[in-house]
Amino acid sequence: MKTVIHKANTRGHANHGWLNSYHSFSFANYQNTERMNFGALRVLNDDTVSEGRGFGTHPHQNMEIISIPLKGDLQHQDNMGNATIIKQGDIQVMSAGTGIMHSEYNKNKDRAVEFLQIWIIPNKTNVKPRYDQISLKELEKPNSLYQILSPNANDAGVWIYQDAWFNLGTFTEDTTTSYALNKKDNGVYAFVLEGNVSIEGEQLSKRDGIGLWETDNIAINASKNSKVLLIEVPMVF
């Protein structure tokens, strides 16, 4: 097994006043040749957007873009005709394909919105752009990992054009679990959303990340109430 650890305080950081963003991988003005990606995982941004502010209309192409609100409400609009609110407990996915235009704003006038913006490099390019959004509430399983994204349209959660799987887990103190990878040559990037966990013996705190590959199973132990996102992706793509 091989590992790479990204402590929360080593991430790139950009504070634009209305946007406070932490970058696990190179993005915009943060460029680190040793942190360009983890396999097909290209971007993992931890964004906080001020009240009523947001990202104006801008383009994307040939990228799988996933948004996971952690607090508050995110207002989305695009040139495919979608105008919706993404809330805490939802997941949104866009296959940018041949090209999309969209905007994202904090719907709330009285509080910030926090969300994860994740980009996955696709295994198919120039596809017809597509959009999907679901609530995760019916998928939640206490003290267990539950799938929220996969390559398969008929599986639990949303789907993308890549052999990738996302799982969330919310654990109480002293909970132990494991995760079996879906494909032999994939790796897993674990991102701690809350609490303290040990993954394969490495102690991790809030917003720490660890990448693991050349393994088929990983062990997770929560030493306090914790929440973890697992992102399984191809290491060669």
Automatic annotation (TrEMBL):
Positions of the Pirin N-terminal domain: 10-120
The keyword Iron is annotated on this UniProt entry: yes
Cofactor note: Binds 1 Fe cation per subunit.
UniProt: Fe cation binding residues: 58, 60, 102, 104
Gene Ontology MF annotations: metal ion binding
UniProtKB keywords: Iron, Metal-binding
Cofactor(s), by name: Fe cation
Coiled coil stretches, renumbered: none
Pfam families: Pirin, Pirin_C_2
Source superkingdom: Bacteria
InterPro entries reported for this sequence: Pirin, Pirin_N_dom, Quercetinase_C, RmlC-like_jellyroll, RmlC_Cupin_sf
Residue ranges of every copy of the Quercetin 2,3-dioxygenase C-terminal cupin domain listed in the record: 148-233
Family: Belongs to the pirin family.
Name of the protein described by the UniProt record: Pirin domain protein
Species of origin: Cellulophaga lytica (strain ATCC 23178 / DSM 7489 / JCM 8516 / NBRC 14961 / NCIMB 1423 / VKM B-1433 / Cy l20)
